[in-house]
Design goal:
Layout: E1 2-4, H1 7-20, H2 22-28, E2 49-53, H3 59-67, E3 72-76, H4 80-89, E4 96-99, E5 102-103, E6 108-115, H5 128-133, E7 139-148, H6 150-153, E8 163-167, H7 173-178, E9 189-195, H8 206-213, E10 218-229, E11 234-243
Parallel strand pairs: 2-3, 2-8, 3-4, 5-7, 8-9
Antiparallel strand pairs: 1-10, 6-7, 9-11, 10-11
Helix pairs in contact: 1-2
């Protein structure tokens, strides 16, 4: 069994936070629950650019648009239905751009394993651990997608700093980071969901991500929103990485 640390309390706090905020309440009518669990995540800047890889229906983008009101937000989401929700959510907000591409380490035709709960969809097949642990994460469809590198999709000179890179790629985190090598110098903070167990076949784990980012000048500064099993072993968490302070 896996439980989210303080899960019931966390859900109650999230619901209260959403209901207190008129923008979040309106978004809930579109089926979008703002990622209020990140409201207190230590993201140290008033970011000018937020890159949201794995944007799904705009849960994090919605929080970012509120928390960082001057930010340009670039969302990457391969699922058409999820992108349509982001478009409706930000129909009157020209700060938000939505790109319908799956981000990976190279450009190639690929398959996206679409789960019943579409925010768990991945370029990697879910393992039995994933489907037995998280409800509604079984694959209901496989669709063809095109992948591309982030440093091809983004013009580094257009990434006005400070820049936040958020990654929620369901096991493909290292693929995303490998394909972002050419723009990482323009990124100041990285927020990435990582696993400590194999929820997707062949996925990168948290220690792989840490080892990749360390020589790039990023240090792990926080571990948030942890999931743990009954013994207390953390199996999944959001990790925050920050580069050494520089002039921005």
């Amino acid at each position: 069994m896996i439980t989210r640390i303080h899960s019931w309390h966390g859900r109650a706090v999230k619901l209260v936070a959403i209901l207190r905020h008129p923008v979040y309440r309106r978004a809930l009518r579109l089926g979008v629950a703002a990622s209020t669990e990140h409201a207190d995540t230590p993201l140290p800047y008033d970011y000018a650019t937020v890159v949201d890889v794995g944007a799904n229906r705009g849960q994090f983008a919605l929080l970012a648009a509120t928390r960082f009101p001057r930010a340009r937000i670039i969302c990457f989401e391969p699922l058409e239905t999820a992108r349509a929700t982001i478009d409706r959510l930000f129909t009157d907000d020209n700060r938000v751009d939505v790109v319908g591409v799956a981000v990976a380490a190279s450009a190639r035709p690929s398959h996206l394993f679409v789960s019943r709960s579409d925010d768990s969809s991945s370029l990697l097949a879910p393992t039995d651990l994933q489907t037995s642990t998280f409800r509604d994460t079984e694959v209901v469809e496989e669709i063809r997608v095109t992948t591309e590198r982030l440093d091809v999709l983004l013009d580094r000179d257009s990434l006005v700093r400070p820049t936040l890179l958020k990654i929620d790629a369901q096991g493909a985190e290292l693929e995303v980071l490998s394909g972002a090598a050419g723009v990482l110098d323009n990124v100041d903070t990285i927020l990435v969901e990582c696993s400590f167990a194999e929820f997707y076949s062949g996925q990168s784990l948290a220690d792989d991500v840490i080892r990749f980012l360390h020589p790039c000048g990023f240090r792990l500064t926080a571990l948030m929103s942890a999931y743990a099993d009954a013994s207390g072993q953390v199996l999944q968490a959001d990790l925050v990485f920050a580069r050494e302070p520089t002039k921005i």
